[in-house]
């Protein structure tokens, strides 16, 4: 059933023009998914920002605060507080090489790996339950479209490629 005649979508299918509605939906999907997933994380003693930080550190093993900030899109002050709390909780370690005391990399501790493994199992099941209404082929189609959008949003092509590969240089040439 089409929306009201005054809908900016000329075909009346959406309540907004397609580009605006697409980004509205992306925002709502992200926020609603976060709100639904956070209670699952709380069972592991994690908040959503803790989870994202742990996941990025694990994925980009030995990552710096600068890299963590790029991938998390969290401001450095908030991110430093989050990392401090994760270090205090024994989930993250700060490693400073003796050759350059200014460089600090982050990695998960054994406890961090354990918490991450438990939470990621829940995340995988959660994501799959959300997407079960879409066939695997449709999921791939939507994912391809989102890759194009992300590539268009990020002005730096090197950064866009890093984000699209989630730091995996080994697959960069295949994307």
Overview of this protein structure:
With 175 residues, the chain is mainly alpha-helical. The protein has seven helices and two strands; from the N terminus they run ααααββααα. It is 61% helix and 5% strand. A two-stranded antiparallel ribbon has the order 1-2. Helix 6 packs antiparallel against helix 7 (157-165). The chain is globular and about 65 Å long. The mean pLDDT is 89.
Give a summary of the structure in a few sentences.
The protein is mainly alpha-helical. The chain has helices at 18-42, 48-59, 65-72, 76-88, 110-131, 136-153, 157-165, and strands spanning 92-95, 105-108.
Spell out the key features of this protein.
175 residues; mainly alpha; two-stranded antiparallel ribbon; globular
Q: Return the average pLDDT rounded to an integer.
A: 89
Beta strand %? under 5%
Inertia-based shape: globular
Rg from alpha-carbon coordinates: 19 Å
Query: How many structural domains in the coordinates?
Result: 2
Can you write the helix and strand succession as a string?
HHHHEEHHH
What is the CATH top level name of the largest domain? Mainly Alpha
Enumerate the strands of the largest sheet in spatial order, edge to edge or round the barrel. Answer: 1-2
Q: Helix coverage percent of residues?
A: 55-70%
What is the terminal-to-terminal distance? 38 Å
Largest sheet: 2 strands, antiparallel
Q: Considering the protein shown, what is the CATH homologous superfamily of the largest domain?
A: Winged helix-like DNA-binding domain superfamily/Winged helix DNA-binding domain
Separate helix tally: 7
pLDDT < 50 runs, ≥5 residues: none
Examine the secondary-structure arrangement and name the CATH architecture of the largest domain: Orthogonal Bundle
Tell me the structural class.
Answer: mainly alpha
Annotated CATH topology of the largest domain: Arc Repressor Mutant, subunit A
Q: How many runs of DSSP E, i.e. beta strands? A: 2
């Amino acid at each position: 059933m089409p929306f009201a005649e005054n809908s900016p979508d000329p075909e009346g299918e959406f309540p907004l023009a397609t580009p605006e509605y697409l980004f509205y939906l992306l925002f709502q999907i992200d926020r609603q998914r976060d709100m639904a997933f956070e209670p699952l994380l709380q069972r592991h003693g994690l908040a959503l920002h803790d989870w994202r930080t742990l996941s990025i550190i694990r994925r980009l093993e030995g990552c710096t605060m600068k890299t963590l900030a790029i991938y998390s899109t969290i401001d450095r002050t908030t991110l430093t507080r989050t990392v401090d709390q994760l270090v205090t909780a024994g989930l993250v370690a700060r490693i400073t090489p003796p050759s350059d005391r200014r460089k600090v990399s982050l990695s998960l501790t054994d406890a961090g790996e354990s918490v991450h493994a438990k939470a990621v199992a829940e995340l995988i099941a959660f994501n799959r339950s959300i997407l079960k209404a879409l066939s695997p082929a449709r999921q791939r189609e939507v994912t391809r479209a989102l890759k194009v959008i992300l590539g268009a949003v990020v002005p730096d092509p090197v950064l866009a490629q890093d984000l699209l590969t989630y730091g995996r240089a080994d697959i960069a040439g295949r994307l």
